[in-house]
Design a protein that fits this description.
about 270 residues, alpha+beta, Jelly Rolls, 6-stranded antiparallel β-sheet, 3-stranded antiparallel β-sheet, about 20% helix, binds 2-oxoglutaric acid
Length: about 270
């Protein structure tokens, strides 16, 4: 993964050319342990924060659904923690360096237990529809992750291509139904991250993950998406946005439908 790591002073330049940068150990082992415990206890208690990805009941992801927008649930500890971390100064500091003043748009938590399928290659701004600029993801490793347990794969430089229109994904590898047609020749980089590392990537960067093939290693991740404060619109699903001082902000809704022609429907995150 060294090629995605960078000296702090180079991050903007690197982000512009690759669309992805890795900041090692942005969160401490104690913080990561707390996040891991709080979210795991939440999903073990009930699945009320789980997003319905329409997986069959026998699928391991039915027991460990991803959480979408946990920061909108202040009634539980996982919600309060997500909301606090979404505006954490260390994370927001990098976000601001990369895209200027920003709003939080989405929080997510993936458990990805052993045998769970991954998420096919995609570009995030297809879902967020932030305009005129794109969104930015902060993907926080909560466990050490690599190819074996389904760590993230990225295609550096792919943020410079336009949003591509989705096609059907391989249901044996991906719980999400759509993927995008990237030529096999495009160089995919398999990330290897330690718990506490954060990967920041551009909303048009092609990324995804394969199944967790390990026997006993969860691949948990806490993910935030941000959009520039200069955004004039974003898809309705992401409103209200979160200002770094903690108050909620509303901007115009972008039209559903996206860039892929008639019949294309934005089906969520
Ligand atoms: O963590 C994964 O496997 C996929 C996450 C993702 O694609 C995203 O954060 O947009």
């Amino acid at each position: 993964m060294t090629q995605l790591m960078t000296e702090r002073q180079d991050i903007t330049e690197r982000y512009l050319s690759d669309g992805v940068i890795l900041i090692p150990q942005l969160l401490s082992p104690a913080e990561i342990a707390e996040i891991r415990t709080v979210f795991t206890e939440q999903v073990e208690a009930d699945r009320s924060l789980g997003f319905d990805d329409h997986v069959p009941s026998e699928d391991i992801l039915a027991r460990f659904p991803r959480f979408v927008h946990p920061h909108r649930h202040p009634e539980v500890e996982a919600g309060r923690l997500a909301r606090r971390l979404m505006t954490d100064r260390r994370i927001f500091g990098v976000v601001t360096e990369l895209i200027g003043p920003a709003y939080g748009a989405q929080s997510m938590f993936y458990f990805k237990p052993p045998t769970a399928r991954g998420q096919a290659l995609h570009q995030d701004n297809l879902f967020l529809q932030a305009h005129p600029e794109t969104c930015l993801a902060a993907w926080i490793a909560i466990d050490d992750c690599d190819a074996e347990n389904g760590g993230l794969m990225v295609i550096p430089g792919s943020h410079q291509i336009q949003i591509l229109c989705p096609e059907d994904a391989d249901p044996d590898e991906s719980f999400s139904r759509a993927t995008i047609p990237v030529p096999e020749s495009a160089p995919r980089v398999q990330t290897e991250m330690k718990a506490g590392d954060v990967l920041f990537f551009h909303g048009s960067l092609v990324h995804g993950s394969r199944s967790n093939t390990s026997a006993d290693r969860f691949r948990r991740s806490l993910i935030f998406h941000y959009i520039p404060q200069t955004s004039v619109e974003v898809a309705q699903f992401y409103i209200p946005l979160l200002h770094p001082d903690g108050h909620e902000v509303t901007i115009a809704e972008s039209a559903e439908g996206g860039p892929c022609g008639e019949g294309w429907v934005n089906t969520g995150p």
